Structures are given as structure tokens and as C-alpha cells.
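Why does residue order matter? Because the sequence determines the fold. Keep that principle in mind as you read this record.
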Amino acid sequence: MHTGADGSAVTAGPVTDADDADDLADTAALLRGASVGHADAASAMTGAVAGTVTELALDEDGGRILWEGDVVDASGVTHSVRVDAASGEVVDRSVED
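Structure:
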């Protein structure tokens, strides 16, 4: 995913870092199950933590599909933020050590 210079807007979609066909298939299945796209997930993250999204990935946890990302705030602190891929709700956020 690419953001604008100030980090407030997504300018291009995510790129895959999948290593093999199984990874690609898993990612495709998660994307089919996600009602919320990457741009809306990134917007929800920066709504919860003002800053720049530096990482964004789709994952599954306990049967729930989540967008997981890192947001770096103006002080340089990295926050981990999780967004429900069905509702767009921020379900967890924490400061990384």
C-alpha cells in the first residue's frame, strides 16, 4: 500500500509479499471474506491514531478476518491497530515496544 506524502490518504493499493501459490490462495480467500477494503481500513486506523500507516495486512484470528497495521504518530511511536474487516470497527490498538 502506498500513501500520500503526509500519510493521510492511500494513493495505491497493497502489494503482495506472498512467497508461493498457497500464500496467494490464502490471501485471496481472506480478501473475498472482507467487506471493508484496504483504503477504508487505513482510514479507520488513522482515525484511531493520527499518523501514517506504514504496514497493512489482512489476517484471520479466531474465525474473524482483520486488517492489521502499523501507524507511526508524529512523535515516531509505532501503534499496532486492528480493524474488523466486516464492520470497519477498530477492535484493538496498542503501542509497539
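The CA atoms of residues 53 and 71 lie 4 Å apart.
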